[in-house]
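Form 7-S
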Amino acid sequence: MQKYREFVHAQKDDSAGRKLLETLSEKCMAPPGCQEDLMSYYAKLVDAAQMKSAPTRERAVTLHEIFKILILYRQNNAYYLFGMAEAKENLGSMDRNVTLLRDAASTYEAALRADSTVSVLDETTRYKAWAQIALLYRVVGDEKEASRWLRIAQASGYPWHDVWQLPYPRMYHSHFVAKPFWEGNEAAHLRFLTQYFERHHAVLRQEVQAAMNLPNRGAERLISFTGATNLISAGNWTQIKMAGDDPVTKAIVWNEELCGPGGAFTRTCAVLRGSENIHAAAITGAAKFYLIAPGSRLKPHYGQGNIRLFLQLGIIVPPGVSISAGGVERAWAEGKALILDDSFMHSVEHTGTAPRVTLSVPIWHPNIYHRFNAKY
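Output:
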């Protein structure tokens, strides 16, 4: 019980977490090793460290080694096999190692087989295993095996139609128009918002540039990690978040420290929520600036659902940044909007030499927006 209390405290307190990480590293990674429960705690702490900052290859290798040891304790434990699959996938993505990525797909398969005997994976983890198998086979170029796993998933009750688009089933509307990129003229709210944000590009760029040039490392206080740092296979990807979702009501909650009087983004927030925006009801949640560093890669992944699209306005766009979604490649342009359905498999690569900044605004899919724009 004492070990568990220490572990819980370490998850809440960064200083305690670093101290326990050092202790477990010394104890568990050298002969004679440590007990299974301590090794499991160690895995969770290393994984948490990866999620709180830009992932490092050193931690990815450590996780791989930890799960090797845990599987020696329980060879057919679905949870350990899933952890090993993630570790192989992350390391393989960092190293661009096709063999390791294919091995990750096989290990996800092993996790599902083990789970079919003794069910320990929750619904979300089980979904991720199914989706990652198909994704990884497509990434390594094995279209036949990716399609085979799609058919197995369909026979198991998953509602998907295409390997390119495998969102979380509870958030997937199979009758919605499906394509990776949309044009601004394809729906009234898309047309208005595309023109509206493009018209205000200069104001948004000025505030971003001013924030990035704040003295005394002021920009660092505004920038945070995205909460999806596991998607980074090289470099760094961060955010400046003006609005988020209320965890209970899911209503938009604005960051008044940034948006209010004297804030770094008062004019940006005025554009987002001002009376001029006649389609403000189309904005569904977190509005943020995304910053991606030169030399960065975001590995192929699926968004959670197809109920919304993401309007991304190029704020600062140097050469060398591209996005691939659903097998289609696009590039951002400064002052221009790109509209993405992130439920399609997508990835980003930045081969340039300067940071790229986009404004990302989630907006309702055209097939459902009428429900939120109705006047009663």
